[in-house]
Fold each of these.
Amino acid sequence: MHVLEHFYLEVIVPIEVFGIDLSITNLTLSMFAAAAIFLILLIILAIKPKVTPGKRQIVIELLLTFIKRNIVYNMIGKKEGKNWIPFISGIFVFVLANNLIGLIPGAYTPTLNPMVPITLALIVFVIVQITNLRKHGIKGLVRTLAPSSVPSWMYVIVVPIETISMISKPFSLFVRLMANMLAGHTIIIVLYGLILYFKSYFIAIPIVPFALIMNLFELFVSAIQAYIFAILSAMYIGEAVKPKH
Amino acid sequence: MDPKAAAMLAAGIAMGIGAIGPGIGIGNLVGKALEGIARQPEAAGQIQTVMFIGIAFTEAIALYALVVAFMLIFVA
């Protein structure tokens, strides 16, 4: 047994279209399962909305109000934030679903593979740049890289630094999500692996409760990472939306 | 020294030293946030939001060390 056993992909249904590998692996299966479960859950919760919310409706209203108040209005502002609620809540729920599906034994965590967080971070990056261009034009992009509050001779230093910081934003977004998920699941696998390593059932007596605690901690980390991914995306969008000076 | 053994040793040292800074940072951050909340409990929500963002940025440094350690073990 390998320490990173849960990292490697297995092809289940090989599909190849024009030389591009589009096989269905255990990652895509887990992702489909996560999306389907959350979609059905949200539809069940939101069906037949009433003015006075019942038991089902109050859950989804709590979730949406949390995203609206704590993430979007806090980071983007009330006026501009209205248009961004669907996008931010979509990102939040998708990342949360993908983080949580990995806690089911046997399922693959999609956010643990570098490709899924890279795609999400690139989506956020492209959307931030497009918003900046649409709101402020070319001048907005130039002002992001070369702020007008800096004296002109400093541009030699400031422009490279700002360029690096612009590129490092999606990179850190991607590494944070991936490394958090990878580290947590590796710790749980290493803990259970100790039982096989020592070849003794007595070692399971301290290991299993500790692994259970780590699992509960992973539940917490999954929610926190989804929250942080959503709030940082909202923060970057808020920076692009706000007027430049 | 065998290169593989050196890489293993380097991975352990990188993770160990890389976790010191973020540990101190997160401790400081949460302590100060707690002080702020104790002083002004009505601002707890806002302070918590900023605290979580700060923790995310600080924690990322330890996770970079983790990625480097994994690369040393499995790629080098």
Note: Chain A is about 70% helix and 5% strand.
Amino acid sequence: MPPLLDVRNLMTYFFTDAGLVKAVRGIEFTIEEGETLALVGESGCGKSMTALSLLRLVPPPGRIVEGEILFRGEDLRRLPPTEMRRVRGNRISMIFQEPMTALNPVLRIGEQIAEVLRLHRAFSQRQAMDTAAELLGQVGISDPGRRLREYPHQLSGGMRQRVVIAMALACDPQLLIADEPTTALDVTIQAQILELLRQLKEQRNMATLLITHDLGVVAETADKVAIMNAGLIMEYTDVKTLFSQPAHPYTAGLLACIPRLGSKRDRLAVIEDSTGQGRPEKGESFLDRCAEPFAPYKGKLPPLREVSAGHFVRCWSL
Amino acid sequence: MDALLSVRNLRKSFVLSGDVPGGKAQTLKAVDGISFELQPGETLGLVGESGCGKSTTGKCLLRLIEPDSGEVLFHGKDILPLPPRAMRPLRRDMQMIFQDPYASLNPRMRVVDIVGEPLIIHGLAKGRELQQEVVRLLDTVGLKPEHLYRYPHEFSGGQRQRIGIARALAVRPDLVVADEPVSALDLSVQAQVINLLRDVQQQFELTYLFIAHDLSVVEHISDRVAVMYLGRIVELATAVELYRQPRHPYGEALLDAVPVPDPTVRRERNPIKGEIPSPIHPPSGCHFHPRCPYAREICSHESPALLDKGAGHLAACHFSEEVGRFRTRP
């Protein structure tokens, strides 16, 4: 059986007035049913653009220029727009970082959840509202009947993210894309939302693509991890291997520079030269400034190679 | 040793106009009677979630916001009653580093002018000497002379934060209030800026009030940590002690909420319930009681005082000896 999602050689470029920006430069990964893959990287590494590419929501002047997005064996890139609309919010849904901008400020939240159900499930207004109330209960919102009639501004940040999750789950998607779902939230609220997502995933056997920069969140929720830098996957393996035997120098660097509670050190490790002096050039990546010299290959892009079963690394040193 | 800074019973409220024209005004107690001391050369971390009053506290200390009442003793002298003219020379000794390195630098000024301006204002250098001093400061924070004539937009976030640090150091302050100085930065850059802050602290003998919401960062850089919740300090202890044995349920909950970057210690999570209440209508008694797993009847009507629970570990809780039962971190 093919994996739930199989992304092959995905490239998304932006054709800006200032020139070509290669946001995603050839990405491959798979997600099995019920699995959580974390896509990890620093700002501008292309992780969010990868997510938007999967749903074919890349904003202009960007577009997917190459690759296949096989969802249950079917290439989403080849679907006509009407078919694609039946996938979005239905079989694949997405939650965003900033719950305020993901909700329409002038519609009551009941209306916004019901819309998904009317559209994809052809529910009547009555049915849709009843189901919306049920969903709000499932995401831990008390007194759902009253909340349905409220507007987004009447809710706290944590509540809004719960509403966005309820919307995303309305049609029982097989894949949930969560783009920094807890980054805008306070840490005690983040803990609640992560716990909620974990429970929902278990109940529904839903696969998740989790996009995050927080390695703590990765360690607590992911099955597999892909580390991204400059539009490419640097390392891709299961979560335990990644934390215990990181093979790529960039991964090792990221892990070393996390301040860890309860282990005071004098200095934090830093990734050598990762600020560079002066503004990074366009398209510059860790590969161009890697501290470890591999002279014969300097300037050549290493391939993503399988160094042991299921452990892929893009580095000449291995 | 005499404290560099003593804060006593500091208060600041904001009056919010009503929702509708003519509506009833409401009062938000952002800082609700807090006291603490900073010893020379130490780093005190001030940690808490949105709306707890930590940034307002930082700004009140420098009188960037005027507090309503209380005392701020700097080198033993209360600075709150001072007229602006007497305040100005003191500002040289107290500097601030801001969260957003994009908003805190004037986009129309060059680096040489941004870092040099405080030197000119305080009459510390001019002309050639000024430029040499700016070059020295840039070198201290890891920037180069060729950056002198560039504008903020030409730098990355981490470099801009270095410029902000150079500007704060220019006047050789005693006290630096750093308000979320690394929260806008990526992980690898964050580590560099934290290391830089520690280096210059030693080099310039600085005392830090380090304000942040990220407990891992605060614990790493601070000697002592104060935890704020809805305008009050609920716990204050050394960083090591706070982690080892929190004595306030909120301190415990905050620690426990931080994800552990180790997949071998996946735990049964039991996050505290509920939302952070509105600071306009904080709960009665202990502000934390509606979310507190240890709360009893007394907590809803009697606000616990911040007391020493042993070896200088302060906590404001009626049942602080019980705290620890709900910890899930290894």
Note: The first helix of chain B runs from residue 54 to 61.
